[in-house]
Amino acid sequence: MFEDNVLERGERVREDFESSPSVPASHESGVPSGKQDVTARAPSPSESPVAKEAGSPARPEAAQLQATGKGHRAGLLRRRPMVSAIGAMLLAAALGGGYLYLDYARHFQSTDDAFIAARQSSLAPKVSGYLTAVPVTDNQHVKAGDVIARIDDRDYRTALEQAQAQVAAAQASIQNVDAQLGVQQAQINANQALLDQAQAALVFAQQQATRYQHLEQTGYGTVQNSQQYTSQLHQQQAAVLSAQANLKLAQQQVEALKAQRKSAVASLAQAEAQRHQAQLNLSYTTVTAGQPGRVVNLGAAAGQFAQPGDSLSMFVPDQIWVTANFKESQLDQMRPRDPVTLKIDAYPERTIHGHVESIQPGSGTAFSLLPAQNATGNYVKIVQRVPIKIVMDDPPTVALGPGMSVVPTARIDSRPSLYERVRKYL
Q1: Interhelix angle for 418-425 vs 81-105, to 10°?
Q2: Is the pTM of this model over 0.85?
Q3: What is the assigned CATH class of domain 103-119+319-425?
């Protein structure tokens, strides 16, 4: 009984399905041509497997719908060729522009880890004293030799006058010794004349003594005369010895005076050195700029007592450059004299040209206060940065100072890129 009911129900379902017409969506009013609306009744859960087999004729209709979609897309390209052409042109332009950009960009290396640098220094006096004048102000530009501060110089002028007096005394001492040398030379000449006179008298005494001794021996002279002239001979001999001793003493006195003169010359040199030091100390009372630059962080004021080494102001010279910390992987083709374009954050509308001056032989961490010790502990490799010195070819007239941020772009390949060659011919 149950099987008969199932068979009858399946027959009725099949008859209903076969009797329902399949109406294309293109014949309905208000529906555009080229589209189809397929409606199918979903089988209920109570339908038997016979009903499911009866619904199998709907599969060819699904395949027909898929083929219609492909034809729709192909028809879109045929119906709108202009849009398709424009899209293809835009795609080609995008690919070409991307290649031009990549080819152009590989000629350059850039970094934002760059700053302006200078050899700034502290201005300090070398002598102590009260400041009498400070003729500059903060951030003022000065030239080489311009006065930064003045120190009371009265004590140093007095010291200079004392040193000059000592120099004059030393010069007078030398002149005195020179005069004594002249007198002594005259004394030597006089002693030499006395010696010559004594020697001449000695010769005559020798002749007289010899003559009277011969007369005494022959009986023509007296013994008294012989003894007298012999005594005179001895006296003349003693006179010659005395004259020789006096001459030698005078000559030795000259040597002593020469030694005194050397001592006086040394005293003069010492006095002149003291005078020179006094002149230097007097000049140190005026603190000047050693080169063109700007006075920064001025701390000096009139009436302040300054000690040697006390900072009066910071000084930033006009000679500045850019220190760019490039990654070590960017240095393969970078060489000195490579052109560089600089963009300063403070002046974004200005483009400054420069060149690579030098490349530091080592990373920045290698010269730091506490360099890295990679031989201890765990090691993690990181890209190091190497400082590059960049000099400006056309420094701007605006105020630039250490620490200002710069974005340098160095050209590492001098050959023109494809974009530059195309632009040249356009």
Answers
A1: 120
A2: no
A3: mainly beta
